[in-house]
Amino acid sequence: MAAYIVRRMFYMIPLLLGVTAVVFLLFNVVGGNPAYQILGKNASQEEVRQLEHQLGLDRPLVVQYFDYLRQLVCFDFGRSWATKQKISTMIREGLVPSLSLTVPSFVIGSILSVLLSLVVAFYRNRLWDRIIVILCVMGMSISILVYIIAGQYYLSFAFGLFPISGWEPGLKGIPFLVLPAGIWIIVGLGSDVRFYRTVILDQTGKEYVLTARAKGVSERLVMLKHVLKNAMIPIVASMTMALPFLFTGSLLLESFFGIPGLGNMSINAINASDFPVIKAVTFFGAFLYMAANLLGDILYRLFDPRIRLE
To answer: Pfam families, from UniProt (predicted)?
Structure first.
């Protein structure tokens, strides 16, 4: 397995280089002159030239690209054009608020999704199965903006159960996170439960399940000991693909609830045409996505020793 992990890490290098090339071309060539994005259309040519020199945009594109690669290798993403802060510092400061929202939401949502999937699979084609599936479809059909606006108006403004927005570190920040975390869980439950239900039901028709039932094993034990274990491979695959979003945060939830995480930072950077921040977050997200793919392969091997990582 160690050789496979090392080989996959080497494979990530050309992929990351491709991501950097695409991002650089999008923001430095296709997107036009960033100086006009910052100064506006009414800026004079002298002001544009001064800003281009200040930001290093008057250098050849090849030099700018290799300088961008040097920053990525050194994990020094430069400074934000809008706030003048070091982007690496901004990412470190934004990680804690993002993770304080996403990690509890992901853990609780994943556990609830698996448990509900087992329930609907156990009561398949019965009343509970139909009710939960209908609720899941309804939940998937409603935009997250509806949940955010309705939650803030009714639960925060009308009834005063939760703060409308804000964030604090430590235990003092829990009241600020309950509502956005609840919305995160509700939005994700619909699609997760339907997918996990399909995966679990696909296992219930296999020969090993029929054999266990023929031996007199109870249905609950069959679901928990046999079916769930074998269904965990696609479930883990789905979960690992969600891991990068735990670090990059939720754009809408952080923006609407005033959580100073990476999602909120990305929204502010887009609004301010802060290209260095956008490029850093894009690279960070691409790296995490590739790392999640590698982690998923490793977890496959742990859950099913028959799988060979070669």
So the answer is: BPD_transp_1, BPD_transp_1_N
What is the C-alpha to C-alpha distance for residues 225 and 90, in angstroms, rounded to an integer? 45
- For 190, how many CA atoms within 13 A lie in the half-sphere containing its CB? 15
**Local structure of residue 155 (DSSP, 8 states):** I
Domain presence at residue 23: no
Name the residue among 130, 241, 253 with its Cα closest to residue 192: 241
The total number of structural domains in the chain stands at 1
Whether residue 247 is contained in a domain is answered as yes
Residue 272 DSSP symbol: T
Strand partners, 79: 86
Distance (Å, whole) CA 133 – CA 129: 6
For the stretch 151-208, pLDDT in tens is: 999 999 999 999 999 999 888 899 999 999 999 999 999 889 999 999 998 888 788 8
What are the beta bridge partners of residue 166? none
